[in-house]
């Protein structure tokens, strides 16, 4: 099919899934969340039900309901809503893809099946081809996140196969530190999108030619990261490095504390004033509210709050 050649520029926030204190999906806050991203963070694209959104821990019905809500409230506020439809079950992925299409999503994305894994790149492409075909009118993005899926093919090679076999193939969401593979993809597949996914080293990806990035920190460090993008564009490398370093120090602090997704949700709540709730089991943290003061003082110290 023919695409308009639209390329996603700039930041894409990988949204958290707001939950109630009992870990049920909390739909009424989605409108405020979208407004916060657009108005406070100047982020105009979202990636929903992905890693950050705990997509793999949600039921198919919950994912559908969330998709509907995100799309409804993004109208006029977001340029792109990409819906992650990856599942272990091909049938569920196809169901979610068709649903995303019927709701008016701007694109779909899928990870590789990660329990029984494809035994070679061709098997993976055949799986993705079926997912993409269930929403053949939508751009399809392969979600490369080898550390979590354990599926570690080189994207430079896989992009060629996807281009050949998947008519709606539009690009890759590239969440890996391998900048050589990333750079090879960007330069070989110039009309495709290769969105970078490791927020810690986005500046390195920019140096390779990145045009867009998807990440969890853009939910709350979107405006900070946007400053890095402008500095880089203006050729002020020193300023861009300073900003990247601040983000890295912040993430180092978070990882040194042994924190993960539940705490990322807390941090988002703290920034946005919107209660993201806890993460689903098995990730739910018991520390919750105790984090807030520690995080607040650290963020203030770093001039990030
Ligand atoms: C594993 C994971 O969640 N990766 C995210 C996106 O792909 C990133 O945005 C990270 O959350 C971020 O780079 C912090 O490590
Ligand atoms: C970060 C990201 O892209 C995701 O949460 O899926």
From TrEMBL:
SMART domains membership: DHDPS
Molecular function as annotated in GO: N-acetylneuraminate lyase activity
Positions with a binding annotation for pyruvate: 52, 214
Reaction(s) catalysed (UniProt annotation): aceneuramate = aldehydo-N-acetyl-D-mannosamine + pyruvate
SUPFAM superfamilies: Aldolase
Subcellular location: Cytoplasm
EC id: 4.1.3.3
Record field: transmembrane: none
Pathway field: Amino-sugar metabolism; N-acetylneuraminate degradation
Assembly mode: Homotetramer.
Biological role stated in the UniProt entry: Catalyzes the cleavage of N-acetylneuraminic acid (sialic acid) to form pyruvate and N-acetylmannosamine via a Schiff base intermediate. It prevents sialic acids from being recycled and returning to the cell surface. Involved in the N-glycolylneuraminic acid (Neu5Gc) degradation pathway.
PANTHER family on file: DIHYDRODIPICOLINATE SYNTHASE (PTHR12128), N-ACETYLNEURAMINATE LYASE (PTHR12128:SF21)
Protein name, as recorded: N-acetylneuraminate lyase
Lineage: Eukaryota, Metazoa, Chordata, Craniata, Vertebrata
């Amino acid at each position: 099919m023919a695409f308009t050649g639209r390329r996603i520029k700039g930041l894409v926030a990988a949204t958290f899934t707001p939950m109630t204190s009992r870990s049920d999906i909390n739909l009424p806050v989605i409108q405020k969340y979208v407004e916060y991203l657009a108005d406070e963070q100047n982020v105009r694209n979202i990636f929903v039900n992905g890693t950050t959104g705990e997509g793999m821990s949600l039921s198919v019905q919950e994912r559908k309901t969330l998709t509907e809500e995100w799309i409804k409230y993004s109208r006029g506020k977001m340029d792109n809503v990409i819906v992650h439809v990856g599942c272990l079950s091909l049938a569920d992925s196809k169901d979610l893809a068709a649903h995303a299409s019927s709701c008016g999503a701007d694109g779909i994305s899928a990870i590789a099946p990660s329990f029984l894994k494809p035994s070679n790149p061709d098997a993976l492409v055949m799986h993705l081809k079926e997912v993409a075909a269930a929403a053949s009118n939508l751009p399809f993005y392969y979600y490369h996140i080898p550390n979590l899926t354990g599926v570690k093919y080189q994207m430079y090679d896989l992009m060629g196969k996807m281009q050949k076999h998947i008519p709606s193939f539009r690009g890759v969401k590239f969440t890996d530190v391998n900048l050589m593979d990333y750079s090879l993809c960007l330069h070989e597949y110039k009309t495709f999108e290769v969105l970078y996914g490791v927020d810690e080293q986005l500046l390195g990806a920019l140096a390779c030619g990145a045009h867009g990035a998807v990440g969890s920190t853009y939910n709350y460090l979107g405006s900070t990261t946007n400053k890095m993008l402008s500095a880089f564009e203006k050729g002020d490398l020193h300023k861009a490095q300073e900003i990247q370093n601040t983000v890295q120090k912040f993430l180092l602090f978070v990882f040194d504390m042994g924190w993960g997704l539940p705490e990322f949700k807390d941090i988002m709540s703290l920034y946005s004033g919107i209660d993201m709730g806890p993460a689903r089991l098995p990730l739910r943290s018991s520390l919750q509210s105790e984090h807030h003061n520690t995080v607040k003082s650290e963020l203030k110290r770093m001039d990030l709050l």
